[in-house]
Design goal:
The complex is a heterodimer. In chain A, 74% of the residues lie in helices and 0% in strands. By secondary structure, chain A is mostly helical. Classes of the chains: A mainly alpha, B mainly alpha. Chain A: It is found in: Cell membrane.
């Protein structure tokens, strides 16, 4: 509790502190007093600690033997070993779930990028009948709660015989991720000067090859952000996964993981290594996308 | 982040094209533009709008697991099948579902509604203020800025359900880190999931941890688009840091803020995995929010599809009203949107 309260106190402090210490604009940084510097780094270090400690704690716990995980005393290390990882990988369906999730998230990412990039480009560059309405529709879909769509989509999938297949999840995830990504890509394409398109068309490139050979390579940061977003959407989704998947071996991670911690007899020694293993692919995608994140999101936010 | 754009669209039409040749070229390109958006439109039509219409319809019926089939087929001895019309087919019941939900006859709508409002308000407020604080700090130039930024975005890279389990582990009554720390400083361990508000508190903390990086990154983007000259001019005129923050930073951030607050509210309102996994509705469904309540109605126990659909319609209407009111409020404040 004290930890959390401290976190919040600092956090709210974060919001007010820089106002007081907002200080000189960046270029006059020589004027920042050592005290202000200390406060800045101190707050940021604390924020970083709060951002990291749950992950670190889960990692440390995953190395402990089961009996040690259940002890109420705090100990960072306690005869660390990889036994838990071994049992989660060999004695549970975890590897199957993992593979299912990789397939679902991978396809969602590829399909999501191609759909949102083309739609975003069309929205950014051309005026066509119905464009405005379309943009509103994309926006409104963001508001649809999973609760209203999940039952009808479930019925549709059942009628198509797709329940309990990966395809049903890929389709459902694309339909939730694409509208938002199309918005993001549109914002990004608008930061690429139109003159490039015009120059390309003067050079005799058709609209499709202009898009493919000139614009897409320039839009790499935007695509990275979209990839990151679609991948994580699919990797972390649970509601559809729990509702659609029925056979144990077809589950994805989000639906499968809860089997480790039922109401009674919770097996945290299986859950903690699984959690760490799930974070790895997400972390890799994140690592490649992160340097574009600020740029990609900004483009959408300010140029919309 | 891009939400300001449609608003933007509503108020200014694209500049008129000059010259006939250009206009014709645009017309020629119409087919191409449509070719590019058609796949998306089709998928959205089939998987968002058709289900939406169907969902609204289902909310006026008494559809559930037991009466969804129009025919009941029984195997005969000879190996064939005999199908008879289902005597208890789902039927149109008008506003019955709405009446039963809103009067509290079925489910706990108002409890879940209160939870949802408290949950959304707490989460968005903290997301925004913490995100803004961190963004303002990261917008200054100093050593190690890039490293701080990467490390602070880490919670975003952790899938929501994993964070939910991680925090459930931290909040565990018997061996969670948080209760261990409480005991260490001489307090009694708390049974986090035995009381409605402590359970929601735990979920809110989880979601704050999870959602701050997005706000931070979006607001940092907004801050970087504010010209440094403004700050310079203001400090020459003797504006205090607080005045500069009030009069340059906040107004400069307004378009981005308006988008992220609206988007954040909608996302938090519909946030499923955190409540579902962290509290699991404990104690006895008292910490459920509307979205998780609807999910449980539809897929747990006897599946009551029509009840879930009614919940869905109610949630959607609330969000539409909120988004409309929010836009009107911004406009009344004289925003140039």
């Amino acid at each position: 509790m004290s930890e959390i309260l401290a976190a919040e106190a600092v956090a709210t402090g974060d919001a007010t502190e820089p106002r007081k210490a907002f200080g000189p604009p960046p270029r006059q940084r020589r004027e920042r007093s050592p005290l202000a510097s200390l406060a800045l780094h101190g707050t940021l270090v604390l924020a970083v600690l709060i951002a990291l400690f749950p992950v670190v704690w889960v990692f440390l716990s995953s190395l402990k033997p089961p009996s040690e995980i259940r002890r109420s005393e705090i100990s960072l290390f306690n005869s660390p070993n990889l036994e838990n990882y071994k049992s989660v990988l060999l004695d549970t369906p975890f590897p199957t779930w993992f593979l299912n999730s990789v397939v679902v998230a991978g396809f969602t990412m590829v399909i999501g990028i191609s759909m949102s990039a083309t739609a975003g480009y069309a929205l950014a560059r051309f005026n066509f009948a119905g464009k405005r309405g379309l943009m509103w529709l994309f926006l409104i879909t963001q508001m649809f709660p999973v609760a209203i769509l999940i039952v009808p989509i479930y019925t549709i999938m059942a009628n198509l015989g797709l329940i309990d297949t990966k395809l049903s999840l890929i389709i459902a995830y694309c339909s939730t991720a694409v509208p938002f990504c199309a918005w993001m890509m549109k914002g990004y394409f608008e930061t690429i000067p139109r003159e490039l398109d015009e120059a390309a068309s003067l050079d005799g490139l058709g609209p499709f090859s202009t898009f493919w050979r000139v614009i897409l390579p320039l839009a790499r940061p935007g695509i990275a952000v979209t990839a990151f977003y679609t991948f994580l959407t699919a990797w972390g989704e649970v509601a559809y996964a729990i509702a659609f998947m029925q056979t144990d071996s077809h589950l994805t991670l989000g639906a499968g993981l809860q089997q480790f911690v039922p109401q009674f007899n919770q097996r945290w020694e299986l859950l903690t290594p699984a959690a760490i293993l799930i974070m790895v692919p997400a972390g890799i995608v994140f690592f490649f996308a992160q340097k574009h994140l600020v740029g990609g999101l900004t483009a959408g936010g300010t140029k919309g | 982040m891009t939400l300001d754009a449609p608003v933007d669209l509503a108020d200014h039409t694209p500049p008129p094209e000059s010259g006939r040749g250009r206009l014709r070229r645009l017309l020629d390109r119409n087919w191409f533009a449509w070719a590019m958006v058609i796949p998306t439109v089709v998928v959205l039509g089939v998987l968002v709008f058709f289900p939406l219409v169907q969902g609204v319809y289902q909310s006026f019926t008494n559809l559930n697991e037991g009466n969804q089939q129009s025919e009941i087929c029984t195997k005969t001895l000879g190996g064939g099948e005999v199908c008879k019309p289902n005597p208890k087919q789902a039927e149109f019941v008008g506003l019955d579902n709405y009446k039963r939900i809103l009067t509290g006859e079925t489910g706990k709508f108002w409890l879940q509604f209160t939870n949802t409002i408290a949950w959304t308000l707490a989460c968005v407020t903290f997301h925004y203020s913490i995100g803004l604080g961190l963004a303002v700090m990261l917008n200054r130039r100093f050593k190690g800025r890039g490293l701080y930024r990467v490390l602070l975005i880490v919670p975003w890279a952790v899938p929501a359900f994993v964070s939910a389990f991680a925090w459930k582990f931290l909040f565990n009554h018997d061996f969670g880190l948080i209760n261990a720390l409480l005991t260490q400083v001489g307090l009694d361990p708390v049974e986090w999931f035995n009381h409605r508000w402590t359970a929601i508190f735990a979920a809110v903390v989880t979601n704050i941890w999870l959602g701050v990086p997005f706000m931070m990154v979006a607001l940092l983007g907004g801050l970087q688009s504010i010209s440094g000259d403004l700050y310079e001019a203001a400090s020459m005129d003797g504006a205090s840091p607080w005045q500069r923050f009030r009069n340059i930073t906040l107004p400069g951030l307004r378009p981005v803020s308006a988008s992220v607050i609206l988007l954040g509210t909608i996302w938090t309102f519909n946030m499923f995995p955190i409540i579902f996994f962290v509290t699991g509705g404990e104690p006895a469904g008292e910490s459920e929010i509307l979205v998780t309540g609807a999910f449980r109605a539809a897929f747990e126990g006897l599946r009551n599809y029509s009840l879930a659909a009614t919940y869905g319609v109610l949630i959607l209407s609330m969000l539409v009203v909120f988004a409309g009111a929010y836009r009107r409020m911004l406009r009344n404040q004289g925003e140039v949107f």
